[in-house]
Amino acid sequence: MQLIFQLSKQNIELNKAEITAIFGSKSKLIDNLLILDSKEKYFDRLAYTKAVYQFLFACKKSELKSKILHFNWNKHYKKNFCVRVPGSNDAFEREIAGLVWHKIKNPKVQLRNSKTSFYFFFTKKLVICGLLIKELTERFEDRKAHLMPGLFHAAMHPRLARCMVNLTGITQTRPSLWDKKVRTKVRGFRPAHFFIKKGTIVDPFCGAGGILIEAGLIGLNVIGCDIDAEMLKKAENNLKHFKINYKLQKADATKLNKKINYLVADFPYFISTKGRDLEKLYSDFLINLKKILGKRAVICFPSFVNHQKLIKKAKLKSRQEFVYYLHKSLSKTVCVIEP
Question: How many other C-beta atoms lie within 10 A of the C-beta of residue 257?
Fold first, then answer.
């Protein structure tokens, strides 16, 4: 199915990368609309997407009336409908809706909670029409650090944490593709028994657990490590609060020795962090990461370090980089890293 993802305008390139990591890389970006083909339907995990639509058509503005009159609206119409034209005035929206209304058999208009919502997006060159599939309204603000039981003032914003998890491209639990004939021969078969194994996210600098919470809420296994026992206690309180299954361990991130397929980390950036030199800490960790990384890591570097130099020194590959502005004295760079 061809889909339209309506992106937040906060950081378009980061938004695009989050979607393509999960749904496929072949895409076309028009203003803040990302169009791609995908069979995936796990839209709720996205952090920066505002809504998802089924792509219906695109045309020049001068061709819109003709396109509406010749399009098969009945194929998509269910029970009732509304027409939305973001950024337009009510009179123009009613004009478009009137044209659609005349092409539907037994039309019924319902402006709120309608079963069928047709959206017309006017870009610089084209009008893009989509059928609303899902609005994404998750309340990330409700999980900001100051609202957590295990309070920690330096925690990453939940929306960015979710985005970083998604940038790994890790899959969620989903039904297996076993042949039906095989499944019916299994004694005591229940559909829930046959799922692809959950992916696991590891955060080696887990702090109060913000990244682990976002990974756990979308159905992933989570493992957190930290050298600070007090921070691990905060993480435990926060993860329990959201009823997330977890594994936590007190460990030095620079000395991890087990293979990790997917890793997400927000590097600590306080100069006084346990009295350690931060650049040396980052370098030691990345050098060790080269030995244990299986597939992909997404790491957030503070702006005051030369992250490219450190990544190159560790002989890792930085596939994508995105600058994330925090405030006038600090920004961060999110790097997608592979062995």
Answer: 8
pLDDT, residue 275, reads 45
Question: What CATH number does residue 212 fall under?
Answer: 3.40.50.150
Question: What is the chain's alpha carbon radius of gyration, rounded to the nearest angstrom?
Answer: 23
Query: What CATH code is carried by the domain that includes residue 126?
Result: 3.30.2130.30
Beta-strand runs (E) in the chain: 2-7, 27-30, 33-37, 49-59, 81-84, 116-122, 127-135, 200-203, 221-226, 247-250, 260-266, 293-302, 317-327, 330-338
pTM of structure: 0.89
Q: What's residue 201's pLDDT? A: 98
Give the model's pLDDT for residue 257: 95
pLDDT in tens, 146-167: 888 887 766 789 999 999 999 9
Number of folded domains that form the chain: 2
Structural domain span for residue 223: 141-338
